[in-house]
Specification:
Radius of gyration of chain B: 41 Å
Number of helices of chain A: 8
Largest sheet of chain A: none
Number of helices of chain B: 6
Structural class of chain A: mainly alpha
Strand content of chain A: under 5%
Number of strands of chain B: 0
Helix content of chain B: over 70%
Strand content of chain B: under 5%
Radius of gyration of chain A: 16 Å
Oligomer: heterodimer
Distance between the termini of chain B: 89 Å
Shape of chain B: rod-shaped
Largest interface: A-B, 40 and 35 residues
Distance between the termini of chain A: 49 Å
Number of strands of chain A: 0
Order of helices and strands of chain A: HHHHHHHH
Structural class of chain B: mainly alpha
Largest sheet of chain B: none
């Protein structure tokens, strides 16, 4: 029941960090196992979702660290390749996927969680273990960098 | 505030956000999530552990409250029992200790044969009550 209730949100958190679908899936599974093992440390006065999201984020970050050997090209391929449609090349989507892989990991996670998944700054701060102000700052810098990388596309 | 700062606070263009949602779209279809849930439950261990995981949210809070109530009741009961035993022991010792013989030293003849046991008991109770 708890798994079904929280798995989609957990997937969104994991995917924002690891970017690759298969890795996000692994991180979600690992996170639920960790949450189960740590259940005796769960404070009943707090909400379960944010607590789980923090565990998901940690599991995803651990996975991302193990995947560091992956080159930028491989990451780009896995991020954009899944959604490539040879029939109608989506320039914006390809360029965005490319730009996202060039952002630092935490900036990308904050931007994806906020602008794409609709998380609040406080939720992002809790999940990633950073102050809310840092999440806001990361978001602004991520947007700035993204605008810069997509500027020519926008001008066209 | 400069124009540049205003731009930084602006959200990304809608078409960029839409493209991002395409890229990060989660799998659709209930079947995928059911399979994922099954895989998670399998990793959580045997079926009893899985069932425990599913129901734990429901009874954990009430179970903890009940356990706390039992502990408090046990401690209070033990303290009351201890106090009661102490009262009984004190009363027994008060009635049986010879220290009261000093108090009972009364002038000779004050308790005569004609006073009888009832009078002596009454005097005894009167003395120890002070």
């Amino acid at each position: 029941m708890l798994v079904r209730l929280h798995s989609k949100r957990a997937y969104a958190v994991a995917r924002a960090i690891v970017t690759v679908h298969e890795d996000a899936e692994d991180a979600v599974q690992e996170a639920f196992v960790r949450a189960y093992q740590a259940l005796d440390r769960f404070n009943l006065d707090q909400a379960f979702g944010p607590w789980l999201n923090r565990i998901v984020a940690n599991a995803a970050l651990d996975l991302a660290r193990r995947r560091k050997v992956r080159t930028t090209d491989e990451l780009h391929e896995s991020l954009a390749g899944t959604f490539r449609d040879p029939g109608e090349a989506d320039e914006l989507r390809r360029r965005l996927a490319d730009a996202l892989t060039k952002l630092p990991e935490r900036m990308r996670s904050v931007l994806v969680l906020h602008d794409i998944e609709g998380f609040a700054h406080s939720e992002i701060g809790t999940a990633l273990g950073i102050p809310e102000g840092t999440a806001r700052s990361d978001l602004h810098h991520a947007r700035q960098r993204l605008r810069g990388m997509l500027r020519d596309l926008r001008d066209n | 505030m400069t124009n540049n700062e205003i731009r930084l606070d602006e959200p990304l263009p809608e078409e960029v956000i839409a493209a991002g949602r395409d890229i990060y779209a989660p799998p659709t279809g209930a079947a995928y999530w059911s399979v994922l849930e099954s895989r998670i439950m399998a990793r959580l261990g045997d079926s009893s552990a899985g069932r425990w995981w599913m129901v734990v949210g429901g009874w954990a809070r009430s179970g903890l409250v009940a356990a706390a109530a039992i502990i408090v009741a046990t401690v209070v009961g033990a303290l009351l029992l201890q106090a009661h035993k102490q009262d009984v022991r004190t009363a027994y010792e008060s009635a049986s200790q010879p220290t009261i013989t000093e108090t009972l030293t009364v002038p000779e003849g004050a308790l005569s044969e004609r006073d009888g046991p009832d009078t002596r008991d009454a005097t005894f109770r009167d003395v120890i009550s002070h």
